[in-house]
Amino acid sequence: MKYFFFDIDGTLKPYGQKIPQSAKETINILQKEGHKIFLATGRRKNEIGKIMSNMNIYNAVCSGGATIIIDNKVEKEEFFSQYELRNILYECKKYNVIMVSVGEGRCYTSYNGLRLKPYILLMKLYSRCKRFRVGSVEGGCGANYTDIKTLSEEEFLNQPTQKIIFFNSRHIEKIDYLNNYTIYNERIWRTIEFDFKEKGIEYIIKKYNVDINDIVVFGDGINDIGMFKYVKNSIAMGNSCEEIKDIASFITKKSNEDGIEYACKYFGWI
């Protein structure tokens, strides 16, 4: 039995498109053959429910490795610490960067000025585009990021946070506390999020006593680098970034060219 981990955006779901029928059928066959299927995504748990339900997938490493879902139940969850949030907020205020924390289904900020409104309007407009992205998450989740509630600073720092959005961020490079994070650059905002999917996979390995050779990961982006380095069987989509292709054990076809099906047939898994 193999344990398969599929990234969503750019892997299972081609950017700006629906999940290919071939990918759905491949996962269905893998499950019938007795293999375990996991999503491995930067999306938060409220952003993957529809995909899990439609594809009969019950397990996930989501929020970039911070949340583990087993049999549709959250088994482990990790958030930015209040210490981290406080330090980031302090530097954001110093450089007039607007900091927005992403919670479960909505966003929060302690900023109480007029500069945020134009950014929200622009984000709402961009969210209608197929290529709309917030960090590693692409399309279909736009409404989650435009519902921003203003809180007091202490309330803001107490919110469970797994992703942070920055507006008015032209001086973000000066924020030293962000040096340890990958900063995703969008048109009018920037984002940091957890990108340690390998920690989620490690948790699954220990829980089920799985041999590392029985782990297979599929991915395409920079937030997949950790899990590609961690396992031996790493499959890069044909549309992957070069950093992923360079370390993959196999490069399949593009996600919109039946790449998942192609790889699984190539290795005899289906």
Automatic annotation (TrEMBL):
Superkingdom of origin organism: Bacteria
Keywords: Hydrolase
Cited PROSITE patterns: COF_2 (PS01229)
Family matches, as SUPFAM superfamilies: HAD-like
GO molecular function per UniProt: magnesium ion binding; phosphatase activity
GO cellular component assignments: cytosol
InterPro entries: Cof, HAD-like_sf, HAD_sf
NCBIfam families, sorted: Cof-subfamily
Protein name: Hydrolase
Biological source species: Clostridium butyricum
